[in-house]
Amino acid sequence: MAFEGLAEKLQSVFKRLRGKGKLTEADVEAALREVRLALLEADVHFKVVKDFIARVRQRAVGQEVLESLTPAQQVIKIVHDELTQLMGGQQARLDLGGAPPVPVMLVGLQGSGKTTTAAKLARLLARQGRQPLLVAADVYRPAAVEQLVTLGQQIQLPVHAPGTDRDPVDIAREGVAEARRRGRDVVIIDTAGRLHIDDALMEELERIRQAVAPREILLVVDAMTGQDAVNVAETFHRRLGIDGVVLTKLDGDARGGAALSVRAVTGRPIKFVGLGERVDQLEPFHPERMASRILGMGDVLSLIEKAQAAFDAQQAQRLERKLREQTFDLEDFLEQLRQVRKMGPLDQLLAMIPGLGPRLKDVTVDEGELRRIEAIIQSMTPEERRHPEIINASRRRRIARGSGTRVQDVNRLLKQFAETQRLMKQVTGAARRGRRGLGNLPFPR
User: Which ranges carry the SRP54-type proteins GTP-binding domain (predicted)?
Assistant: First the structure.
């Protein structure tokens, strides 16, 4: 995960700081030296680090902080605030104002993930009530047009793709006209990239910009490129005047410095982050939430939003009723398992819980185990899912064969589910007894 190394180092620094109780100016200076080193090792631009440390020092080394009742907490809050400001302060939303169709142009180097990001962004906007049209204007990379068409079919959105023998400027211009004819209100243009920045690339992008006058030019940057991401952002902004940045592959083994540097160096905000390859793994960027994740404070708001997006209100009511009536079975369990998996990788979800992130450093979340559980339950008959107590030895052998697992795996799942049911009965029974007891108390009616 991006920021993993930085988060670990910063949390270690502040843990020692909290253990000191009363702080001196020397304590704060020693901590800031470690913070500075951690940021540099995370590939944050050295000028950005220098300015960041200076701002934190100015606020942290003062009588009001050092003589407060919780000086360490005050210093951590200052670092959190400054990290938030460093990444933009507040969420920067996509500007889709103006007469439809509104053109949005994606630019960046080859391999940064533009085509996938175009589809992800279209899906995200469609879920917000927009009607996007994708335009395949990358005629140079082999299979780029086919990739966008395939992604469009996957997310059930139209793609304007006249072919690779056309001028990209004409394709972009025709794409906007096509969107107007079809009543689409947003046009997302996937442009060509290069392995490096050159004049031919920039001139073509400038011609597309002049032809369609995009409301937003988003630079797609691979977070794993480190300092190069900052250099790329500077050059694209100088030539095109970008409006925002999309950081991709933030789920990879990246040091994360680009996210902390791009905003400070270009003055343009990070608007979205890609956290995986799936089409649903693009999220709006929230500086304050990211700062909280880095400092091990969790990210409850993002967790709630993911849950709200994944869980249907009627499903939640049905689950609550089944738990209350003690009729929760393996079919319900399978449904909940699928809903949780829709929210994203488990390690990412667990890291959003305050205080839990640092404890997961050496914990490996086995996604394969979840797939095995799903396979086992799917290999059962509907009757077996509703009444697991009827599953005898021969049924267990059949279920194991059907799911490609071992009988021991089936036994373990059934044992764990039986224990879960037992605990649920205890909890709901205690709740009912508590309500009956309260009914006899002289509370106002």
Answer: 269-282
